[in-house]
Amino acid sequence: MPNEGPGDIARELWSDLRFRLRALFRRDAMERELDDELRFHVEREADKHVRAGVAPDEALRRARVAFGGVERMKEESRAVRGVGFLEHTAADLRYAARTLAAKRGFTAAVVLTLGLGIGANAAMFGIVDRMLFRAPPFMHDASRVHRVFTFETWDGKEEAIGNFAYARYLDVARWSHAFDVVAAGGFSPLAVGSGEDAREMRVAAVSASFWKLFDAPPVAGRIFSTREDTLPSGAPVAVLGHAFWQERYGGRHDALGSQLMIGSVSYTIIGVAPRGFVGVEEGDAPVAFIPITHYAANVELRGGRPDLATTYNWSWLEMFVRRREGVSQAAADADLTNVHRRSYDAQRAVSRNFPPPEVAKPHARATSLHHERGPRASPVSAVAAWVSGVALVVLLIACANVANLLLARAMQRRREIALRLALGVTRGRLLSQLMTESLLLALLGAVAGLAIAQWGGAALRTLFLSNGDATGVVDTRTLLFAGAMALVTGILTGLVPALQAGRDDLSTTLKAGAREGTYQRSRVRGALLLAQGALSVVLLVGAGLFVRSLDNVQSLRLGYDVDPVFLVSPNLRGAKLTKEERAALAVRLRDEATTVPGVARAARAVTVPFWNTWQTSLFTAGVDSVRNLGEFTLQAADAEYFETVGTRILRGRALLPSDGAKAQRVMVVSEGMAKALWPRQDAVGKCVQVAADTVPCSLVVGVAENIRQNTLTDAREYQYYLPVEQFHPEAADLFVRASGDAAALPETLRRRLQPLMPGSGYVTVTPFREIVDPNQRSWKLGATMFTAFGLLSLVLAAIGLYSVIAYDVAQRSHELGVRIALGARAGHLVRLVVGEGVRFALVGMALGGVIALAAGRWVEPLLFAQSARDPAVFGAVTATLLVVALAASFLPAVRAARVDPNASLRSD
Hints:
29 helices
């Protein structure tokens, strides 16, 4: 036989595939063809017997016997088609759909319960996936791309450093061997546009090598080249973000070649990034990408512009690397460490203030590209991980609830199942049908869950993701996750009821009456109910702890007022003013701000809590090293500062208008600083030298309350206040205090102050609340999400308890009727039923309390001034669950008390 060629094999495979598809989708036609073919062969065989003299009826019988049974032949023929499994599955799906359609209330309850559980998990998966796992769009081989962190030891404490000077970036680019791409970027709010249209927007200053991390060809124009991103000044060219191009220019290609003012420079637009390109950060795309060297050459810096190639003390860049193929993570870290040690030596050559390498112990690592997986992850990522676990617990509660419902339904169908088994249905086939029903319910629940996740996704993105997020929650990855959750959920909820079904003795079940055949106490159902109660306790305790923690945060005195205060930040945008002119402008802005309706007072200041700080050396008699006592930060402000921000003076006096440049140097210190430097002494009248031990003394004239400057938790943050005229007279930032409703004040202030700015300068008005709130974010997240999921779990547990008690009451109607006939009172039956529900709740609460106590040591680091074993929280949760258990049990109890004994006894 000649060998078959590829064409013959392909034709044979195609023929076989067409046959199987026809068998699957044209089953009725093939069944008719099979009947016709078998009838033809049987009749031919019968004709042979008739011609031999056998009677027609006998001939037909002999023909059928010869073929061994027509039905058997049909089954063998169907088996040859190879689609039996699919046919059985289709039949099971049709049967399940008919069954569920007949019980619409039951189906709706199960689908909604699973939808809530799956929806909560799908929504959290979308958030955690973006925060911790998903690569930025268009990134090439993201598994090899890393964010660089260096580590140095200062005062015995190792610090992770993620911002670098341009000189450090050059060192890594020149000396490293483990990477095929080394890139850098700085992401800052800059003024974009001119005149009244100027607004601060997010702009990315990136190296030309940055684009090599992506497969992101521009949709119009081109990206900037290495030649346009070289020292000393680069080129004023810009690549627009796609969304900004659409919004500002309507997507017109004639935008290429036009000018756009960014910061203080007019840039030529040379290209447009593709839709959805955001760079390396989550959230909205920058409005423009500009060469890093040109931005650095034109940015305004206090103290003058440094030489970028040799200066290491202007750290403003993030660095990104891509490992060469075949280079391991360990090898990349070793290479980075060698480069960083060499760079550290170069830094010490120009600045001897840095400790020697054996003290600083410099090393470096190529860490995850995601901030929240790196060495400086915020508490938000830890809260997100816990909330994801909470969402999973909610799903487990939902699964237990649905399993209970399915188990109750299976027990009601005991006689039906026994009858089907008696008629020849195999237990495997029965198991398949019941599991198909469960999986179909889970699939419907997943669809409902995705709708819930999409609906609640915007709120979750706002809570968890910085800079917002333009994409929806439901995408391909989330769909796959929801599908996997549906499969697991379907198996979890259907396995126990399916295994329980058909275990009863068939003859006993079929002989039993309706009462004996349907009611049976189930330990499995009780265990599922206890699991729901215990898990609900855990979630509610977590919710209570985070709510108490958030209350502690919000009631914490920060040392200043937040809601009535606004920050006004002037930006000269390249205007050349002398120090005297800057100082005069600052005074004009302050004076003009006080004339705006709704403004109570205004004050100039240099630093802003939680935004920027200023530190310098301090010297005072009797203290060898002030720095070793804590972190001392300064504020230079005018006389109106304390009343404007609401910081109280505890002793002595505040700064006065008379504390001018030629007056006696003075300062106000915080209470914590006073206790740290002069314990058990009065700080007023003490002498402190600022910046050097050779300068004149600054006399302490007052003690102010402590403020929170950088964190809410560090007790060793100390502040001191200097007159702005004595320390930094050109300071132009303003704090403004509103006297009433401040909703419209930011825009009013901006419009009044903008005309005072020289050239194309502008002002930005920011509510102080927007600066402070991100530092409370993790506690707000924990309180919000734990409470939401805790209440959801409580509702599910209440429904589960109600369904179990109500089912038991319905199935025990005969027993309850007998009790009433024998003289039991309604109150006794109510106590009987309610007592059973309360017992379930008490045992569940005990189990949940033990679990919550055990988990407390892991949760406590996420709380603020709150014990994870707070008896008040546990007591409140206990009382709440008892009330819910009583409410869930009371309605079935009333129904039990109203059972008609005559009807119950006649039904026996």
